[in-house]
Amino acid sequence: MNNPLPPLEPIRSAYRLQYLTDEQLDQLQEATLDILENVGVKFPSEKALQVFSAHGAEVDHNTQIVKLERDLVFKAMKSVPRYFRMAARVPEYDLQLQDGTTYFTTDGCGVQVCDMDSGKIRPSTKADVGMMARVADYLPSIGFCWPMVSAQDHGGTAPLHEIDAGWNNSVKHVQSETIMGGRDCEYAVEMATVISGSREELRRRPPLSLVVCTIAPLMQDHAGIEGAMVMAQAGIPVGFLAMPCLGTTAPATHAGAVAMGDAEIISATVLMQLISPGAPVFHSLMQAWADPRSGGYVSYARDARSRYGVVEMAHHWGMPSLGACYGTDSIEAGTWQSAAEPALDPLLAGLTSPEIVTGMGLARTYTRLYPEQIILDEDLYQRARTYLMRMEVSPETLALDVIRAVGPGGHFLGQKHTREHIRTSLVRGVTHEFDSNGKYREPREVARQRVKWILENHHPAPLEKAQQDELTRILAAADRELA
Questions:
Q1: What's the CATH code of the domain at 374?
Q2: Residue 483: what pLDDT?
Q3: Helical pair 70-77 and 254-275, crossing angle rounded to 10 deg
Q4: What is the pLDDT of residues 110-157, one digit of tens each?
């Protein structure tokens, strides 16, 4: 028996915080335009170079570097839709991007799993992708699904198997960050068409979106950019994610790293608009640091202002933003570090209001899955969501009649008003669950038990058999051609 669909619980903040002034945003945008005009971005794709040449960009076919004049940039950016729909398998879970609403998703795409039964660390599989898609489908904090780990048991076609596992275990929108290359994306479009029913419906309600990482400094990925062009022409939303590392692949200052990463994103966005005007594109920039003592990669630091200022940069361009949260550097779930690093993330993200946000559920710098981590992260999310709600002040909540009735020295336990409101006034998190002796349980144990309960009891509506059969056929063809 299928479970009823509970409503999603996105963050709708009653408050806003501006990290960057309008003047600073203009300065950053001007720096981006300067980089695009005078330095350029490398596009290792002949198809992309031909598109740029046809529209008057300065293209060096030997170096594959494209330089864009600001008039061309602004003309192309005019056709980027400010908001668009990220559709689900069921219309109830469609995400219509809009101001003031922030949908979160899981993190991906990890390569290791701490096995729920044995506790051993092992390579991830397609079954793990499906398992976590089912958990994400259940949680109202998760607006859409990223494959959390890689389907390493399927080799070169793992990304296609990951979205298959997503659709077979969740009714929510699926977003991939691993589908690369023109031919792979053509298969993904074919699979998404099976879910939608037709190419026209796919364009109207796309159940799939794609994140493509740029390469710092100032390069596009060959397979990524060619796949993005395929997706954009089909009407599937594409986001470009710059990941500058301060001190190695980017300047060692926040502003310099943001300007450079923004140039990578905007150059790719311009290409999408030149090849398919009006293509839905979103903006994402997630910086890291190089440890000056070791050269190691550090994804969290005490100063993470640029995690949230970049949201305003996206909005300054008139684009939706994919924000970054969670993704702790902790090597285990349930540690002080795994909670301390992302503790403020959902709160601060809600204050800047990106349209979508990724990051829940992985440890060891986005590489290792402890299934219970997503429950711990969800607890932080729900705290932030509640903090950002405006307190209700009304005759009912002021309760003046009740206060008069009880008076000085009385108590409120016997009041009808208390019976009606106390259960919604106190909501327990994973830190306040009792054991049989009336003592608080260990939060990680609570989280692990909840994951097991979800897997045993939550069964999303399955795909129709004809859809399952068609996806299996497409995957078999992809395996023969690409694996």
A1: 3.20.20.480
A2: 79
A3: 70
A4: 999 999 999 999 999 999 999 999 999 999 999 999 999 999 999 999
Specify the length of the chain in residues: 483
Q: Looking at the 3D structure of the chain, how many domains does it have?
A: 1
In whole angstroms, how far apart are CA 437 and each of 89, 430, 442? 44, 17, 13
Q: Could you tell me which residues come within 8 angstroms of residue 191 by beta carbon, excluding any fewer than 6 positions away?
A: 160, 163, 164, 167, 208, 471, 474, 475
Closest by CA position to 239, among listed 215, 205, 216, 212: 212
Strands 65-67 and 58-60: antiparallel
* Structural domain boundaries, residue 183: 1-390+428-483
DSSP bridge pairs for 176: 210
Is residue 274 in some structural domain?
yes
Which pairs count as long-range contacts for 70-78, CB under 8 Å and 24+ apart, including other chains? 70/33, 70/36, 70/37, 72/270, 73/33, 73/36, 73/266, 73/270, 76/269, 76/270, 76/273, 76/274, 77/266, 77/269, 77/270, 77/273, 77/317, 77/318
Q: What is the pTM of this model?
A: 0.94
The residue among 128, 166, 114 whose CA lies nearest residue 144 is 166
Establish if 461 belongs to a structural domain: yes
Placement of tokens 């994402």 in the chain: 284
